[in-house]
Design a protein that fits this description.
alpha+beta, 8-stranded mixed beta sheet, Jelly Rolls, about 230 residues
Length: about 230
Amino acid sequence: MTGPLASHDGARADASTVSGAGIETCDAMDGLGAIGHPGVELVIWRRALPGRLRTWLDHMDASRLPDLRVLVRPADLRRAVEPYLVGCGMPPGDLRDLLLGDIGELVSTFARVARTDLVDVRLEPVDNDACWKFHRDCVEARLLTTYRGPATEWVQPIHAARALDEQRAYEGPLERLGAHDVAVFKGSCAGPGSGIVHRSPPIVGTRQTRLLLVLNKQTMTSPVCWSPTQPRA
């Protein structure tokens, strides 16, 4: 199942338009489906993780944060990802299960919204400025959430050209997702004029390590689809 972004009839009722054309927020996961509506470029789900999970992740040694990329069917998410969490030394228990469950729900939601059977899942620690440049993603749509550390920064469409041109020198209006917010961005492949300009927050010198989840549809650069017989990379 692949095709255009899905538009869920109930999503707009749960979403509220914020300042700036094409930007919406919602207070429930189902509201992310508003990304399928014409003219909507970004949908942000304002949410809070359970306090115990936040504290657990924030205080975890960075060496135990997972670094993985898998292409999976939503139903296989837990079986595909759990070996990586074991391998990196992330402590077992109800909090690790809670993290896995949250990722699984986001993968299932993205699959519905993006109308795809397979989801390219990246969960990675970030302690550098690798994606500090303002850019548009060369995808149809992408889901981002930051489980630890500062979240993704973005600019309203009216300021996009200036941010792309000035890069580090840009001092215009700048937005940042709230801690643990979930955002679905349209990329440049969604059509002419599409794509929210954004960047990873510069963190070099801050001694911070982010934990970032990125969900995409399958592309030519995706890994081979996970199967139960596939050895862990």
